[in-house]
Design a protein that fits this description.
Oligomer: single chain
Order of helices and strands: HHH
Largest sheet: none
Helix content: over 70%
Length: 73
Amino acid sequence: MQKEKFASQADSEVLATLRAIAEKEGRQFQSLIDEALRDIIEKKRNDKPRPHVMTAYQQSLKEFDELYRKLAK
């Protein structure tokens, strides 16, 4: 895979959070940026929720159906 440098700007809080995540997970900052960019591409390309999101949503519906119905009233 060929890498290409680019320059951009981001909110300093966002960058600080990403750096903290990278440190906590023992990963390089760049790998998180790459993962985030790939997630955005996947989300936009498919224009539908990712499978693991839908699985969590469906589980939530099963688990909290009664609560959701009460809240809807």
